[in-house]
Amino acid sequence: MQPDPDPNETVSSLDNESTSEVEERATRRVAISGASGLVGSALSFALRARGDRVTRLVRRVAARTGDEAQWDPVSGRVDSDVLEGHDVVVHLAGEPIASWRWGEAKKERIRSSRVDGTKLLAKALAALEQPPSVLVSASAVGIYGSRPGEHLDESSESGEGFLASVAIDWEAACAPASDAGIRVVNTRLGVIVDRDDALIARQLPLARIGLGGHVGNGKQRISWVAIDDVVGAILHTIDDQTLSGPVNVTSPNPVTNREFARSLSRAVGRPALGWMPGLIAKLVFGEMGRELILTDQNVTPTRLQESGYKFVHPELESALQAALGRA
User: Does residue 246 lie in a domain region?
Assistant: First the structure.
């Protein structure tokens, strides 16, 4: 379980909402799946900080304190009685995708945890007598596939590959909720910049000894986003009733793999001397290497920006400094 975030690191995600707006807005009841994960723990803190009540969806037996509800995607169980009357549901649960290689069993867990879990939750919410007004369901920019040279936003077509196919079905699994009149937002998350993110955590040891160089030719674009802006964007989509459907949650300033490696090395005060050929990345990481490490995506958060969201960390240097505690 992730520890509660440091208030100094997460309070900035509330900057898009003024103090008077917080005071005027009624307290909401918000249920969160994946509440103990990287995004879920930071979001829970931010929601409580602005006065909302948080209910954690857990797979174990729920505590009797009233702030937990049980759900089990495997057995198909959802504690609907506890979910009755919640204003918002944020669905973040899913099998981690950053591992050394994807075997068939791992790929099945990635798919089923997202698609089947989302379908179960969406059906349960649709059947409530008092359903939430909005379901914010995580998705990913992986839906676009690798698209060198293309500029991608929410109007772009989906791409090809394993992650793209998972994300397509993941978003489609929300249909029971939207068919029931619940506003559904699919937040397409980019690479999250935080010291506890799996991809960043694996790069840090090499960066700290000066070997944090680029992978492949280093020209592939990375659509990243600071953890503060993931939280801020989710809060924004909860509050902005005009937003529904896909919303890209990425910085407006994507960088190349080479630029990312250099920025990370600067953030830890070391040179970026290492380099991994693309062939080696494919041999070592297999399909995961092709779809995560070598993928090329230039994604723009068009709908967030048009709806007035202001990024806490629009530039990578600032995001890395905040993430590594050197701001």
Answer: yes
Which ranges of the chain have pLDDT less than 50?
Answer: 1-11, 18-23, 327
pLDDT for the residue 78: 93
| Residue 253 buriedness (CB in 10 A; 0-12 / 13-18 / 19+) | middle
What is the DSSP-derived secondary structure letter of residue 149?
A: T
When divided into structural domains, the chain yields a total of: 1
Within a domain: residue 229?
yes
What pLDDT score does 16 carry?
62
Candidates 43, 23, 22; CA nearest to 31 is 43
The reported pLDDT for the residue numbered 14 is 55
**Residue 288 falls inside a structural domain:** no
Map tokens 């997460």 to a residue. 10
- For the chain, the farthest-separated pair of C-alpha atoms sits apart, in whole angstroms, at 59
Answer for the pair 55, 67: CB distance below 8 angstroms, yes or no.
yes
Supply angle C-alpha 315, 48, 236, rounded to 5.
Answer: 45
The predicted pLDDT at position 100 comes to 72
Residue 22 is predicted with a pLDDT of 44
- Residue 155 in any domain: the answer is yes
The pLDDT value recorded for residue 99 is: 72
What's the whole-model pTM score?
A: 0.89
Distance of alpha carbon 244 from alpha carbon 96, whole angstroms: 25
The boundaries of the domain holding residue 92 are 7-191+225-250+300-312
Query: Which CATH number covers residue 40?
Result: 3.40.50.720
What is the signed CA dihedral for 181, 58, 69, 238, rounded to 10 degrees?
-40
